[in-house]
Amino acid sequence: LSGVAVADTEPPAVPIKSGPTGTVCSGQVEVCWSGTDNATPESELVYAFRLDGGQWSDWGSLTCNSFALNHGQHNVDVKAKDIVGNETSDFATRTFQVDVNGPTISQVQTSPGLTSALVTWTTDEPATSQVDYGLSDSYGSSTLLDSAFVTSHSVTITGLDSNATYHCRVRSSDACDHESASTDLTFTTLPDTIPP
Question: How many angstroms separate the CA atoms of 162 and 160, rounded?
Fold first, then answer.
């Protein structure tokens, strides 16, 4: 009927406008959002947000918030409310991964030959491959950097003396350029048993 007021029961929409996606290389991130409603002007909408399924913030007019986050996966949820109290039921979510740590190196093994040695290791995320080596734990030499991002690593050290003890360590960097290095290892090349 004309002249009869229709109650506003439609909740506002609250799309996330900007923020991290995929993997980000810093723990400092900012997420921004906006709101639209069939009756309430955008300037009069209020918002609440939460991190990783925790407690919702107080309602307020903020449309951006900065977070200081640790390594790992994170979720930011945002909801809106209009002037008559209709609240977003299907809140907006942004999911992303924060990478602030270097790769975890494990299973380092050496297989020495006469004048070379094969060094293998694994990482918990795709990373580059390089080996430092020398006659002491000061090393002094390094293999060429293999920039392929892999989790199973294999590097051959060449040009070694036979029947000599060498020190080595492996190094890997992830896509965020966070580097990790193993502890010091030693290996001894095989003796030259071929007569002159």
Answer: 6
